Design the sequence.
């Protein structure tokens, strides 16, 4: 799977860990930055990951900032992105099964590398169920396009 990953300064250390974890799992990972713990603005890294996912250049994305919340908000501004901030493997499974989430955001200041591994494995190891959930995701897409759901 082709995965784009990015972080701000608060997520940098966890991003480096998650990137290595994804590579070890056999994924093709593209790191859009940042490259240090020097202060940067998270939307600058959310945008290229979200655009890659929305265009199909990436199968999925991972974004990490201090809380994971800012990255989710920024990524969700790109049409076609369904970014979710997840701290529990069960929620990662549900986000994939029911919502076809395609970008995972993580809280770099509030999650251990071991917790991140469990969430990432659940997110990347789960497929979208489709069926009644596809109808709901289609309605989200219509809302996104400004159409009646």
Sequence:
């Amino acid at each position: 799977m082709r995965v784009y990953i990015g972080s701000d300064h608060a997520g940098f250390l966890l991003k480096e860990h998650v990137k290595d974890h994804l590579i070890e799992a056999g994924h093709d990972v593209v790191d859009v930055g940042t490259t240090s713990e020097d202060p940067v603005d998270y939307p600058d890294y959310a945008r290229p990951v979200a655009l890659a996912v929305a265009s199909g250049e990436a199968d999925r994305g991972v974004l990490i900032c201090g809380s994971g919340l800012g990255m989710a908000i920024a990524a969700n501004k790109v049409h076609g992105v369904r970014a979710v901030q997840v701290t529990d493997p069960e929620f990662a499974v549900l986000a994939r099964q029911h919502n076809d989430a395609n970008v995972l955001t993580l809280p770099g200041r509030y999650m251990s590398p071991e917790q991140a591994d469990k969430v990432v494995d659940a997110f990347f190891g789960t497929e979208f169920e489709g069926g009644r959930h596809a109808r709901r995701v289609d309605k989200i897409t219509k809302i996104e396009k400004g159409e009646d759901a």
Helices lie at 12-24, 43-55, 69-75, 89-99, 113-124, 132-144.
